Amino acid sequence: MKKTRDYHETLIKSLKDPPEAAEYLDAALEQGDREMFLVALRNVAEARGGLSQLARTARLNRSNLHRLLSKNGNPEVQTLAEILHAFGLRLAISAESRPMSRVA
């Protein structure tokens, strides 16, 4: 179990860096697994002082934030944007490297 703890501590330390956190969240989002993305958000929150600190910074209710970032959470886009803003990040959309074919 020691290796897992070392990995988690190293991960949390690296997520204090905004560009690193942005890449981590982007990679989790690209996996297409909502639960994985919520775990990634919780990890970034932990790196930034925990969910209580995030709730204060984002001006969100702490118990609602816990529920939104839980395994079954489903934050709305506006709430997600507020959480990311508290991390010093922003929600953005970019074109895929290969555009979708047009449907006539």
Topology of helices and strands:
Blueprint: H1 2-14, H2 18-30, H3 34-47, H4 51-58, H5 62-68, H6 77-86
What would you say this structure looks like, in words?
- The structure is a single chain.
- The protein has 104 residues and is an all-alpha fold.
- The protein has one domain (2-86).
- The protein has six helices and no strands.
- The protein has helices spanning 2-14, 18-30, 34-47, 51-58, 62-68, 77-86.
- α2 packs antiparallel against α3 (34-47) and α4 crosses α6 (77-86).
- It is globular, with a radius of gyration of 15 Å.
- The chain starts with a helix and ends in an 18-residue tail after the last helix.
- The model has no long low-confidence stretch (mean pLDDT 90).
Provide the descriptors you would attach to this structure in a database record.
104 residues, 62% helix, mainly alpha, 6 helices
